Structures are given as structure tokens and as C-alpha cells.
Amino acid sequence: DIHSHHSTPRHPQSMFVELLLAVVGGALVFILYVRWSLQRTLHAGNASTPKHSALAELVNPPGWPLLGHLPSYANALFKSGYIHDLHAEHGEVLLLRFLGFPLILTCRPEHVRLFFTQHLRDAPFVESMSKVFGAGSILLQEGDAWRLKRNLLNQGFQKSFMRDRVLECVREVEARLAARLFARLRLESVSDVSSTSSSSPSSASSSSSSTPMVTPSSCVIRMDSEFVQLTTAVIGLTTMDHSFHYLDEDQPKTEPVKDEYLPLFAEIIAETGRMFSNPLRPLTSPLTQLSFRAALRRVRSFLDDQIQARLDQPQRDRTDVLGILIDALIQDKITREELVDNLWTFVFAGADTTAHTMAYCLYYIASNPDVEKKLLQEINEVFDSPSASEQEQDGASPLTFEQVNHLSYLRCIILESLRLRPIAVGSSRMIPAGSTLFTKTPLEKDCVALVHYYSIHHNPDHWNDPERYDPDRHLPERASKRHSYAFVPFGGGPHICVGQTMALLEARFVLANFYWRGFRARLVPGHTYTSVDHCTMKEQHDMPLLISRE
């Protein structure tokens, strides 16, 4: 006989119980992983805090049971203003908890000063970025190693280098930006005329006898994207004499620049911001992490090739940052790996930051007609002619180094834009056990503290009507009356951003010529402008603006 064996059907209730146990088990494993990740990131020991501990003195905004502020923080990732709202509601110094692990937040300028001037150890948030920049990056160095690299890079920012090298690179690249903008406007004008002609009944007969007059039009351009291409070319030229194809004559002026490394830079910068904000990123997005690491390897390989090409030159250029670093390599002051780390750090930090700043400047100028009027008056005074002639429309700008330094109101515009929209998100430090920086009672354990630049720059205790755009705040007579660490767009102390002089020079030159050449920017009707915090703060949709020429 053939015996058939029938399995006993499973009861739906038992299946539900098994599914529920699987979900609960998975949730527990996930929570344990989160706790382990936070413990590693925050270098915390026991997450529990005694009732009378030092941290109990700090204001602790309401959070979730057990989870603390983790759900609110995760929901607010990349949304500008979350930490600022906490400060505005609960005070300058706060304590957040993530599954019990503490994080101190402060927007008090005195604390910021101590952050930048005392020898406090960088927090694990920064140390974890070694996978992005490399362990030899100046961002991760301390003591003698940091001083050596800082002195090397300082050579690339002397006044003579700014005037003779950086400004000429910016001049060449800005002329290409002008040509690109003119090409976009001409294309839009031709499209407007063509569409008008095709809709007219008499267009067929008139088009054969005469060509329609093309008049300047306007079009929506994502200026943040345009500026990122420009600033990447500038940083490439000034560091290693490479423009990432921005200056190639065969590049279409009405399309994004085609270069294999520009998309890689964008991918790395975006993913770095996600990693910085979310320590669980490797778990939640493993495929993206694989792509990120592959992009990073390709970029570092490209930079190493640039180094080798320079080493192979019989007469090496010693006037750019790469030349300075190669001299240090030859003298055994730094290793080849450290050279790549710092060249990459320079490219990473110098491109997007200046681009976002200039895009926000256009936004605020477009939003404040009185500011634009005052800026145009300054530009007319500084330039020898009130506007570009036909021959100068897309040629090299005549603006000199000395004239750039006379654009004092434009400098105030840039600084006020950096106040309202600081490009760098913040800075963190490990506060050692025994410290009384934040509490009367000495801390029992090391604890991470974070300063949030956006909150500092919007602190009503140090800024009158902080949400109002007012470039005059940065006039010398007014700036001297505020706390020196109430405004820190470039950091502060010995570790202040080494490239701030270059960034301000580049931004003033490009923006001044934008208006001198007759371009104007207006807000796009109906578009909602939203800022997001990735590794840097930027407009979510790459700052679309209505560009025209007067």
C-alpha cells in the first residue's frame, strides 16, 4: 500500500504568536544594536545616571520612555532648526538622551570659546570621519602632527598666493560661469521667440524674410548646482592645477559639466552627512555604504595619480597646495598616505561650502530689494564702469585684488548669509570626567558635548531680532560690541578654518561680477525654499532662482 502522510494544518493563532515573537525578537536585537552603536559613538559607559549626578543639573527636554530623544532626532534628520527649536524652548544648555546615553547641547558663546581654545579632545563624531578623510587628515590631528600640517597649509594662503594664484584661477572660472549663464538666457530667448513665431498665423511667411530679434529673457537655474561646479573647478585649479573639465571648450555651456568625478564628490558628501547624523547608517543602508566606499576609493586613487604625475614632472610647480605638500613628502615630513588624506580634505571642504554660501547670498539679496540696491551702488563705485560692456559680458573680469577688498558691504552680505544659514553644522568635543564646564558638580564620566552653529547664530541673547536679514550687523563698529564667539561660521581659535580667506575672496569676486555683468536673481514664484542639514547646510532643491539680465 502507498501511504500518504498529511501534515497537520497549523492553527492561525499559533502562526500569529510565532510572527509576534519574531517581530519582538527582531526589535530587541535592533535595540541592542542601537545601544551598542550609541555606546561606541558616544564613548559612554553605564547609561544610567544617578539622581544626584552632575548631569541631573542640566535641563532635559521631554523625551520617550527608554528611547529618550532618539525618535524625535531620527524624525528630524536633515531638517534645519530641530536643535535650535530645543534651545529656543528650553535654554542654552541642554541634555539629550539616546537610549539612556547622554549628549550635552550648548549654544552659549563662552562654551564655544572654550571648545575652540582649550585642548579638549575631539568627540567620536569627528573620529568616525577618519573613514572619509583618512587618519592623517588635519581635521583629525592633534599636537605636533596638527601643527606641522597647519603650517604647511598656511603657506598656501599667504597674501601673495591669494593675489597671484587664487584670484587668477577664480577670474578664469568666473568668466566661464558668465558664459554659461549667457548661453542659458540666449537659449531661453530663442525658445521664447520660436514658440511665439510658431503660434502666430503669419510666422511661415515672415520667418523666411527676416530673423526674429532675440531679446534677453529669464529662466530658472539651480544656482547651487552651478556654483558647486564652479567652486570645485577653483579648488581643483588652486590645489593641483586641475579644473575637472569646467574650462574645456567642448563642454556644452547649457548643460551640467561632464566629469566623472563630480558625481562621486556629490555622492560622498551626501553620504558623509547621513553618516554624521545617523550612526546606524551602515546597518540601515548597506548597499549605499558599498557604493560610498567604492566612490571614495576612486577619488583617492585619482588624487594619488595627480600626486604621481606631479612627482614625474622634471620642473614641478611649487606654487599650489599640492606642490607645497609634495615638498613636505620629499623631505619626509609627511607620508604619501597623509598627502592624499589632506589633499582630499582640502577638496572636500573647499567646494560645496563656498558654493552653498554664494547660493544663499543670491537668495537673501533677491528677498531684500533694499540690500540689492545698496550692493549695486557699491559695485558701481568699485568698478571703473557701472556695468559690463558688450565686449566684457562673458570675458575676463577686470576686478583687481585691491578692488575685491574694497567690497565691504558685499562682505557684510556674505557674513549675514552665513549667520542665518551657517554652512558648517556644528562642532563636538569630549568633555573629560571632573570637568565643571557645564555643571557645578564635576562630571563623573567623559561626556560628548555639541555646539550647534545655527542655534548660536540665532541666539536672541546675542542677536537683536535674529531672524531678520541685516548685513549691517557685521559693520566693524557693531561687530566689535558682540561676543567674539557669538558668530563662528569658520570655527575659532587655533583650529579656525584655514581656507576662510580664500572662501571670502572667491565669493566676493564671483558675486560682484554676477551683478556687474547685469545678472539679477529673483525668487521662483510658488517655490518653497527649504534648508537641509547634510554634512553642510544647503537648499533642498539646489536653490532654483529666476535669472535674468538687465
Walk me through the structure.
52% of the residues lie in helices and 9% in strands. The chain is α+β, with helices and mostly antiparallel strands and 550 residues long. Helix 13 (286-311) packs across helix 15. The longest helix is centred in the first third of the chain and has 41 residues, at 159-199. The chain starts with 11 loop residues before the first helix and ends with a strand.
Q: Can you give me a brief rundown of this structure?
A:
The chain is 52% helix and 9% strand. With 550 residues, it is an alpha+beta fold. A hairpin with a 2-residue loop joins strand 1 (93-98) and strand 2 (101-106).
In what range is the share of β-strand residues? 5-15%
Number of helices: 21
- Main sheet, how many strands, which sense, barrel? 5 strands, mixed
The total count of strands amounts to 10
Shape: globular
Q: Helix coverage percent of residues?
A: 40-55%
Low-confidence regions? 1-8, 44-48, 192-215
Q: For the largest beta sheet, what order do the strands appear in spatially? A: 1-2-6-5-3
The whole-angstrom Rg is 27 Å
CA distance, first residue to last residue: 97 Å
Instruction: Give the helix/strand class.
Output: alpha+beta
Average pLDDT over all residues = 83
